[in-house]
Amino acid sequence: MRKNIFGDTGIKKRLSTTITLLRHAPLPRAYHGRYNGWSDIPIDPLLFDHQKVKALKEEHFDLIYSSDLIRCTQTIELLFDGRLKPYPTGALREVKFREEIEGKSFEEIEQLASFNPAYLHDETSWHGYICEESQDAFYQRLRDFLGSLPEDKNILICSHGGAIKAMLYLLGEPAVSLGYLESVSIRTPRNII
């Protein structure tokens, strides 16, 4: 049985809201396939595929939130031609990677003296190795954000791949990985677990 995303309070919040989770636009190619975490890297506007987000552009959102990192705020600015501004928040940042890991590719991480292939056996071990922020702290940060969302709204959230996957898990949805500018909408007229 999954825990209530609002912690051990036993409180279940009933939301009748649509939440659309959007992964930010592509970074410059040199940053693809890297653990970019909290690095504040701008997007590459030439890689912004307007066709991928055409339906989102035409939709009415009551509220728009984004990670406070520039790649998310720039995505919203380009998506809505600067007409709509998000509420940027650090709560929607990617997990905080260890300094030794930040900005590296998996191949570079494998070459680190601290790397042990045993870390790959399960998600908890891998998270503990690459992240400065614990999995519990990461989930709690996202849990607190989701718990603060108002009801009966159509909400767009622009964030990062790992944060989106974690939010999907916390919302009781399949934790899928999204590519750049991919989105998933969740209608939540039920209790969130």
Jot down its keywords.
27% helix; 193 residues; single chain; Rossmann fold; alpha/beta; five-stranded mixed β-sheet
Quick summary:
The chain is of the alpha/beta class. It has helices spanning 54-58, 70-79, 106-110, 123-130, 135-148, 161-170; strands at 17-23, 63-67, 87-89, 154-159, 183-188. The chain has a domain at 17-96 and 134-188: 3-Layer(aba) Sandwich (Rossmann fold).
Explain this structure to me?
By secondary structure, this protein is of the alpha/beta class. Helices cover 27% and strands 14% of the residues. The chain has a domain of 135 residues: Phosphoglycerate mutase-like (Rossmann fold). The chain contains six helices and five strands, in the order βαβαβαααβαβ. It has a five-stranded mixed β-sheet. Strand 2, helix 2 and strand 3 form a beta-alpha-beta unit. The N terminus is likely disordered.
